[in-house]
Amino acid sequence: AGLTTYFHPGINLKKIHYYSIKLYEKLEEETGQAVGFHQPGSIRIASTPTRVDEFKYQMTRAGWHPTEQYLIGPERIQELFPILNMEKVLAGLYNPGDGHIDPYSLTMALAAGARKYGALLNYPVQVTNLSPRSDGTWEVETPHGIIRTNRIVNTAGFWAREIGAMIGLHHPLIPVHHQYVVTSTIPEVKALKMELPVLRDLEGSYYLRQERDGLLLGPYESQEKMKLQESWVTNGVPPGFGKELFETDLDRIMDHIEAAMAMVPVLKQADIINTVAGPITYSPDILPMVGPHKGVRNYWVAIGFGYGIIHAGGVGKYLSDWILGGEPPFDLIELDPNRYGKWSTTQYTATKARESYGFNNIVGYPKEERFAGRPTERVSGLYEVLKSKCSMGFHAGWEQPHWFYKPGDEIGYKPSFRRTNWFEPVGREYKQVMEKVGVIDLTPFGKFIVKGNDSVKLLDHLFANVIPKVGATNISHMLTPRGQVYAELTVSHLSPGEFLLVTGSGSELHDLRWIEEEALKGGYNVEIKNITDEMGVLGIAGPFARKVLQKLSIEDLSDSAFKFLQSRHIKLSDIAATAIRISYSGELGWELYHRKEDSAALYNVIMEAGQEEGIDDFGTYALNALRLEKAFRAWGAEMNCDTNPLEAGLDYFIKLNKRHKICIFFLNTVPYLDDLACFSEKIPDLIMEKVFV
After folding, report:
1. What string of H, E and C letters represents the secondary structure of 358-393?
2. Packing angle between helix 455-462 and helix 508-522, nearest 10 degrees?
3. Is the pLDDT of residue 37 over 80?
């Protein structure tokens, strides 16, 4: 249907939408190719009080971007869309400049522009095989010969899975059936003096726009009614499939058509003259996968686009800048292809795609959880022990407790834009850790072992902090070439040349890809092993944490014997663990790394030992509140690839005498030489000379 919108509930993805629209606006002038771009604006309709709350929430985020967005009332909505039934309309979210574009014309214009600037397009050409070479380049085999290339970008749409399979990658994608209908001329529409804005009735779960003198209606049916093209996953896309369409099924979308007739009554007298049913490729969470892929050199993807038209221009620019500049121009970890792992099975992908399609227009609450396909194979050793006692959250395939139930609590997932059922329980857990002692399951952490002759050299190259001594731990950051914060990890020097690196669950493969690529590029003699699925982690925190653990260990855990940011191998009631004296809560605490199969036993002995101290569970919601009050930063919140470490308040962890990193950092982020004066006392003269040069 070619819809274009500035709107997105996220923050940085709006930049992708914005660039696409601005590109399309000038495409005809630049290429001479008409694109059929209409920009009558769009209105999202709120017909429930909760939806009005959602719109207000979205308006608080609108200031991040230059695009116009307004919360408008029924009178203004009626002006913009005079044929709308206003009985249930409470408010609207209005985006001027939204609209629709002809997909075929857009494609031809982009191709014309590519040729104009020197690109060579050959089609149709089948790719029969991909062969990686030892120097990181590729050979692409086709019936017309072999193409040697520095890198591959997989933008193969329906065929992306098959391209990935050629090199042993499983891309979690599945085609879904999407239908829209086009009506004949409607007199009331023909009589309008201006084109109607695109309408999105969120409760009715459909979009509606003007198509000449009629209307075009596209529903998103529920996960129970929607249809997947599963045969393409098992048997591949049929040879020769291109512009073909699927058989239509109006019965599947009739509920939505009736809802549209109630909202736009002139539809009742309209004839349907065309029904279009075609495939859209979905990822499990409906977001595309964009960027370099872990484990394969110089292999990039731009696949899984549920909204290909609005993403196309912006993603092309985003990937081009990343490839040329060596880092993403801004942070879009939500699109990282490495957010999926081996736990993203075909069955999981299908189940989640059903859910995501059916949830296209549901209310977007803060702290949203979606439950289809859960649990995956990724469960901690405590899952069976804790699952009935708490509200679980989904973290990179893992189930992790968000908050715990007590008698009298309203249990379950109750999302809201206001205080909801977890507010008081989280306060209770917060107080538990502040005043007594609490235990938390931290198993989803990403965990890597790095060892070998060059391990110290590699980590010294990767991190802006110094390398901790044997038995010590620190917080370290990987910076991009521009000095942005690519990752934050905990680094523990377990034994000479052997390190344990720990990162957040959502950053596991994001960070590991960077580490492996830097090790390969630099020719470092190291072994890097991902032990995330092998190791469980328990956190214990609070003023009585030492007292509880001391009951279980013959090791001296006193402050003088086991200092903050020290790590060592200990036994707790004969269960081996690597104990790190650190806690994200900001309170006295340890993180205990152990075999995942020992998690339940370790948890039980700790809980038993802490009875006298009033020990109890706490979850990630309380942990987040505690770390915020301690002013501990979190990657993805207070820092990411959009911030440099000084902006994020990470000065303490950035060692300015690591000259090669700091020169790059200041050269690219300090806009005026005068601004360097404030740093001059911290920077050695040699580095200042380099900066001014």
Report:
1. HCCCCCCCCCCCCCCCCCCCCCCCCHHHHCCCEEEE
2. 120
3. yes
